[in-house]
Amino acid sequence: MPSLDELTRDAAALAGGGRVIPIRAHSPAEAEVARQMQICNACRYCEGFCAVFPAMTRRLEFSPADVHYLANLCHNCGACLHACQYAPPNAFAVNVPQAMARVRVTTYADYAWPPALGALYQRNGLTLSLALAAGLALFLVLALALKGTLWQAMPAGNFYAVFPHNLMVGLFAPVFLFAMLALGLGVRRFWRDQAPGPASGAALGEASHDALRLKYLDGGHGEGCNNEDDAFTLARRRFHHFTFYGFMLCFAATSVATLYHYLLGWSAPYAATSLPKLLGTVGGVALLIGTAGLWRLNLRRHPQHGDSAQAPMDLGFIALLFFTAFTGLALMLLRSTAALPLALAIHLGVVMALFATLPYGKFAHGVFRCAALLKWAIEKRQPSRLTLAGD
Ligand code: SF4
Ligand code: SF4
Fold it and tell me: How far apart, in whole angstroms, are the C-alpha atoms of residue 39 and residue 158?
């Protein structure tokens, strides 16, 4: 019986029109994706499932940059694992979603800014726990220092009677701006390595559409992706949407409140029917639903879909988003009671932990996936660089 290496080499030779394509990769995880892509390139059964396979067919070899591009283009829907005739226990041992997941976390770490903080991805559960403990300690101690108690009703339920507005801005603005800078510089390094060429308006539009609709969680046929088994479900896509749009509505609530404060001179607290309150309430409820659903799906996930070593990062981020929404809604309900200082300190501590870990946790997957989708939208509009022998 031929060895696995021989089988892989034969598949690569088939894809390369008789030439053996050398696997160029600089880590075991990247080499494994390159090996599997060369098998898939000979098979091509999954071509209609997602953008990864048509992007793959535009290459005969897979450089480290190609591997990171394809890994982030993969939405981990699981469809190609359940369809694959070469999946384990076959000797080819093709498991594309798992191999891609193992590379993705190295993308986040390798392109992190500043580079030294990429190590935070390795023990992400610990990173999130420490950030949460530090955030909670900061605001509980501050509330005690400023008010001398965590249990006292404030006039009109006014948050600023506990933490002055300028103090909150002074604490949150630098952390949030640093998080955006770190994510921006990280994805810029990724983009430079990809060098996809200029983006047309059509490419930008298509990439935005595919990202906002999570097009590639539909399994290529609109019935959804796989989760615990080979049955298709739209649940993952829908809970992702609840989570993403819930988060964006909460962000919009804060942005509108900031405009009210600085542009119009309208200070909080705002009425229950005001725009910031409505956006925040709807967004918070959506975020609660989305994260609770994703948590449940994540625990039931087929073990071969992903990388079990990343469970603390995945579940930690979902939990942090859930508690951001939960403590925000609890704060709204408790604001006219003596629990206001305690509820506010806990909510702000959770939000601070979320902001501080945005560039060094699962949030990064959305940023790098958007970049990969844009590259695909650009690349598919370009002529293929492959030429057949004799052309
Ligand atoms: S995942 Fe399996 S079935 Fe799909 S293209 Fe690759 S080798 Fe073929
Ligand atoms: S897991 Fe889904 S998104 Fe990823 S390569 Fe396979 S079919 Fe495409």
Answer: 62
How do residues 172-231 score in pLDDT, each as one tens digit? 999 999 999 999 999 999 999 999 999 999 999 999 999 999 999 987 788 899 999 999
Phi, psi at residue 93, to the nearest 5°? 50, 50
Is the full-model pTM beyond 0.85?
A: yes
Distance 91 CA to ligand 1 centre (A): 13
Ligand 1 in reach of 40 Cβ (< 6 A): yes
* Centre of ligand 2 from the C-alpha of residue 106, in Å: 18
What is the residue extent of each domain of the chain?
115-191+219-363
The pLDDT assigned to 14 comes to 54
* Ligand 2, atom 8, residue with closest C-alpha: 50
Q: Which ligand 1 atom is the nearest neighbour of the CA of 83? A: 3
Kindly give the number of the ligand 1 atom that is closest to the alpha carbon of 49: 4
**Which ligand does the CA of 216 lie closest to?**
2
- Burial zone of 355 (CB within 10 Å; 0-12 exposed, 13-18 middle, 19+ buried): buried
Phi and psi angles of residue 225, each rounded to the nearest 5 degrees, phi first: -110, 180
Cα 4 to Cα 74: distance, rounded to the nearest angstrom: 25
pLDDT digits (tens, 9 = 90+) for 332-345: 999 999 999 999 99
Give CATH for domain 115-191+219-363. Answer: 1.20.950
Averaged pLDDT for residues 345-351: 98
* Band (267; pLDDT cuts 50, 70, 90): confident
Q: How far is the CA of 237 from the centre of ligand 1 (A)?
A: 23
Q: Return the number of other C-beta atoms located less than 10 Å from residue 388's C-beta.
A: 6
Sequence letter at residue 32: E
Backbone angles phi, psi at 17, to 5 degrees: 65, 35
State the distance from the centre of ligand 1 to the C-alpha of 58, rounded, in angstroms.
Answer: 16
Q: Are 74 and 96 in contact (CB under 8 A)?
A: yes
Paired tokens of 334: 């408790």
DSSP 269: P
Helices (H), the chain: 4-15, 28-43, 52-56, 64-73, 79-83, 96-110, 124-147, 165-194, 201-213, 235-259, 275-300, 311-334, 340-357, 364-379
